[in-house]
Design a protein that fits this description.
One of its GO terms (biological process) is mitochondrial respiratory chain complex III assembly. By secondary structure, the protein is mainly beta. Residues 1-93 and 237-243 have low confidence and may be disordered. It binds 2-acetamido-2-deoxy-beta-D-glucopyranose (NAG) (4 copies).
Amino acid sequence: MHSTRPAPRIFKEVYRASHQSAKTLTCPLHRRRHYSQNSLNDHLFNYRVLVYSVLGLGAGAALFHGSRRLGFTELHAEAPPAPAEITFEKPKKTKGLSKEENRDVISSQHLQVRKSWENPGVYAWGSNSGRVVAPDSDETLIKQPRRIPYFDGMLLRDMKLDRNFGAAITENGDLLQWGDGYSKEVREPTATLTGKDLTLMAISRDRIIALGSGGKVYSLPVSQEDQAKGAKATESSWIPFWSSKSKVSYRVIEPKDMAWGEKVSSISSGLEHLLLLTNKGRLFSSASSSERFPSRGEMGIPGLSWTTRPPGPYDQPHEIATLRGFEISAIATGNHHSLALDKEGRAFAFGDNTSGQLGLEPSSESPFIDAPSLLPISRLYSGTNLSPRITSISAGGTNSFFTVDATRVASPKEEVTPRTGLGRITADTWSCGQGILGTLGTGRWTHVQGTPTKIKSLSGLFEWDEDANTVIPIRLKRLSVGSTHASATMDNVTHVRAGTSPSTNSPNDTNWGADVVWWGGNEYYQLGMGKRNNVSVPGYIAPLDSVAEKERAKRKEEHRFQITPRHVVSVGGRRVSMEQRVECGRMVSAVYSGV
Ligand SMILES: *[C@@H]1O[C@H](CO)[C@@H](O)[C@H](O)[C@H]1NC(C)=O
Ligand SMILES: *[C@@H]1O[C@H](CO)[C@@H](O)[C@H](O)[C@H]1NC(C)=O
Ligand SMILES: *[C@@H]1O[C@H](CO)[C@@H](O)[C@H](O)[C@H]1NC(C)=O
Ligand SMILES: *[C@@H]1O[C@H](CO)[C@@H](O)[C@H](O)[C@H]1NC(C)=O
């Protein structure tokens, strides 16, 4: 028996009516396996589900956990086809192989981690009608992950993708642009806004908004032509009496009345509007497209429209005064709606609600809500012994996502015993908005989903923490939402130290990254599965580097894409801390090596 990492150690808790004595387990992997058979034919995952022991925490709740390392027996998830244990001739194969080579041979996940360190860069796929995911190709659809050679060896601070234009911030803070939306003639990523130490960016329909390290916000048109003909800022230069004109035209977006030490710390853009969050928890909004002024309430300023706007630049920021007093800590935007999360775990929504993306209870006459409204998340937990707190918000297109830490509390009449599990946290993921393409991730194809629904396969997951000897919830590390599809990176199930210490020195000790799942619209193959069907339940995709996989095709373990978590590695002779990140854009997807 080889001992590469078996199926991810993800277990699911199932609440059953208390009269039921049988305590059963559903594991999301069952579903994923089924799903993978339908859509990934050749990349069948060899799932093994571990055997569980019942801890019996809480009335009617069965908590299952297990770990290969704790010596529990392994079971196979589904009967046919019973995956054979590794049958390649081990003695021949492993003889003469270094420990590291052996790790590559026995583990696809180990190989993926190594490749991501040795050869950083960008994989992209989906619609190529704007020459974004494969700039040097005339194919209109890129069906599976493919490298953009320009980025080979490069680390990036950020990347945002529209089907017609791409933008990235290099490791030293310069903006790169490519795609037909930038220029039909220039086929290679090109540096545009440079020398500003940009840290992150957002894209509207036709502009790029980038945040400099000092909190300055730059807004520039996507198109090279517009950049050339627009007004150029005069930049002060270090050479006395000499100032140079910027190569591209840009505007500076500057919130007024900033407090001492207050600066913009985060930005997020829809198609026409921008949210700007300051390090003091204040929220501003502005117009972010030069084509259209936001008109669906997404700026969160009641009554504000093109005709009622105050004098001054059309894209001046407005403080969302109704949120004063709430310390905002995170923001997210869909095409025409906005989400804000405060430090206490309360979320506010405003803007377009035509698909139910604001996740509010039935109320209003108008589909556009221009005053930030509190998301009544506790209603989703009424009748349970759980007290919810929103831990993250994400949005894209016409959808919203919330992750929640739900803490087990005692109900008034409850008899509290040590077995009650008070204080235990369950991590859940909720979604609302448009479901016709499967973007809700709930298995449903509802057109309009106004009340948030739980994504079962991303909720109530636990793992056994060997060090702490306890069961811990598995949260999401990151959720990237494109205009119709989404991807979630799971937190806390990685190992990247094989071979670095005596305890990890066995040739059988292999690295593994974090699991990544994908779902939603697949009209342009943006899910990277090589097939076009829309997907309503999160599922795996095959490893990005299919060539490397084929080289090692004899391996009989699960082949699924995993992402390499942050780690200090040597790139081109330098020690850098890097991680792979998923970016779901507008009908396109990418994975890049981020600093
Ligand atoms: C690694 O696994 C192989 C196959 O199960 C086994 O034969 C070998 O003894 C193991 N090596 C070590 C060092 O544990
Ligand atoms: C948002 O849309 C949903 C779905 O149509 C609807 O149930 C809800 O009432 C709307 N919310 C508001 C505040 O209008
Ligand atoms: C998961 O994360 C927690 C907190 O960051 C840590 O204490 C724990 O050891 C991790 N568990 C595993 C299995 O890596
Ligand atoms: C995905 O959904 C869209 C919109 O409903 C539909 O037009 C398309 O046919 C679907 N794709 C497949 C393969 O079913």
